[in-house]
Design a protein that fits this description.
This protein has helices at about 1-10, 25-115, 120-125, 130-150, 160-180, 185-215, 220-275, 285-315. It is mainly alpha-helical. The chain has one domain (about 65-285). The longest helix is centred in the N-terminal third of the chain and has 92 residues, at about 25-115. The model is unreliable at about 1-20, about 35-40, about 55-65, about 290-295 and about 310-315 (pLDDT under 50).
Length: about 325
């Protein structure tokens, strides 16, 4: 009795009991199928987690690469812009320097010839000189000759007496000369003002890219930090190097323009005083009078020829 009870208790429930029509092999296969079905959701979850990790790692690899490329393009573009500013600055400095040298030379020659003339009439015949002072004097002489010849047009531009008309023409010519002297200076002022900020923009963007690269590498040692940040600081140095010559050139030419403008202002005042002594009357130069007489003689010859042709035809 005792042996029978222990044997029954050690036997698993249902181990010795078989359902009608089901073999032990079929039962074992059913158990294995159920275990596989239970493990299927866990395997799918692990595969999905692995795919997500791969996608995240790929995205993290692409994002720093794109950021590095964008940073390099922006920093290089900033440097090329600053190089273009530098070329424009030195070209303008060279052009304006040659212009001021020529102006100083022409003004010196004309001033010497003008004040060495015997009188105001003789000075009006000296018209073979270039330069701002010569053009101002030519405008004044042309105005006086026009008023003396009675060819002045009766409109608002020519209203007033001879002194008012002379003052107006001299002032207009001086404004033209001033515009010519100040041409290009606005570009120098703009380059001198914005170049440091353009370089600073490139530096900030380069430092941002450098910090991204440092964070990607995971190391903050001096060897890793010094290289990228040093390259980014070059943009600021280039911006300052471009701005300094532009500012110096602008201030120099502004000073030269003030000197030339003061010279032209004094010359215009002296010109009006000399014209006042002659009652704002000046005769046409002799060569102009001779050319007018020659033109009149030529016109008379043409008229005579035109009259003789019909007469010859009638006699024929």
């Amino acid at each position: 009795m005792t042996q029978t009870t222990s044997t029954v208790s050690q036997t698993p429930p249902g181990a010795g009991i078989a359902a009608p029509g089901i073999t032990p092999e079929a039962a074992s296969a059913a158990v294995n199928t159920g275990a596989a079905a239970a493990n299927a959701p866990a395997g799918a979850a692990q595969a999905a987690s692995a795919a997500t990790e791969q996608a995240a790692s790929a995205a993290n690899g692409i994002a720093p690469l794109g950021s590095d490329i964008t940073s390099a393009v922006i920093v290089d573009g900033t440097l090329w812009i600053l190089i273009g500013f530098s070329v424009a600055t030195w070209a303008l400095i060279l052009i304006k320097g040659i212009q001021h040298l020529r102006i100083a030379h022409h003004n010196r020659i004309f001033n010497k010839q003008f004040w060495s003339a015997s009188d105001f009439q003789a000075a009006s015949e000296q018209r073979n000189y270039a330069g701002p002072a010569a053009r101002v004097a030519h405008a004044g002489f042309a105005t006086l000759i026009e008023a003396d010849g009675g060819t002045t047009t009766h409109d608002l531009e020519h209203t007033g007496d001879r002194q008012e008309l002379l003052d107006r023409r001299l002032r207009q010519q001086m404004q033209k000369e001033r515009g010519s002297l100040e041409s290009g200076l606005a570009i120098l002022a703009t380059i001198g003002s914005i170049s440091p900020f353009v370089g600073l923009f490139g530096t900030v963007w380069g430092i941002m890219g450098a910090l991204t690269s440092i964070s990607k590498s995971g190391s903050a040692s001096l060897d890793v930090v010094a290289g990228p940040i040093g390259e980014a600081l070059i943009a600021t140095a280039v911006g300052i190097a471009v701005a300094v010559p532009a500012v110096i050139g602008y201030n120099f030419f502004i000073r030269r323009n003030k000197v030339i403008w003061a010279f032209l202002d004094d010359f215009a005042i002296d010109f009006v005083h000399l014209a006042l002594k002659t009652s704002f009357i000046i005769k046409r130069p002799a060569r102009h009078a001779a050319s007018r007489l020659a033109d009149a003689a030529g016109n008379r010859r043409h008229l005579i020829d035109d009259e003789e042709l019909p007469a010859k035809g009638a006699h024929a």
